[in-house]
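Attaching the record inline, Q. Sequence:
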Amino acid sequence: MTAHGEDLGSALVDASTLAGVPDAFQRLWTPHRMAYITAGADVNRGSGCPFCVAPELSDPEGLIVHRGRTAYVLLNLFPYNSGHLLVCPYRHVPTYDLATSEETAEIAQLTQTAMRVLRTVSRCDGFNIGMNQGAVAGAGVDEHLHQHIVPRWSTDANFFPIIARTKALPQLLGDVREAVASAWPAG
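Structure, as predicted:
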């Protein structure tokens, strides 16, 4: 219980009643996500580039759903929505203009396949697709090119992060990885 009588065991807590300066954010407590946050910190530690480390791991450990010749597809460790995929070249290259023609062609092909797979697996209605290149452009990992594929639904919780300043992710990363990898076409 807080000083104001709220039960911190409940899933959603009004942050304005907690100690500290109120920031208008609600808190959706998801302690099970700590495993992913910790794993992410461990992956980044020492290597400096999680996209160079991921292909060295098993597919479940690296959250990889498909391995191509010059690029691969993996789940975002910190997704905007369930099924948020990234397409990365294996080669450590920072921007799209420095990628080879073979890499850009495979990134495009893998993006199309990922969209088809996500439509089948998650029945999404649309996508946000993009690349943030450079820290100034918002890239969380600015030294290794990666394209985001974020599934969207007409009935999704778009208002939730904007109005309630809260994200709700209804599926665990391992479950999403298994579903997408299983639905990926052979070849």
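The radius of gyration is 18 Å. The domain at 12-179 is CATH 3.30.428.10 (HIT family, subunit A).

More tomorrow.
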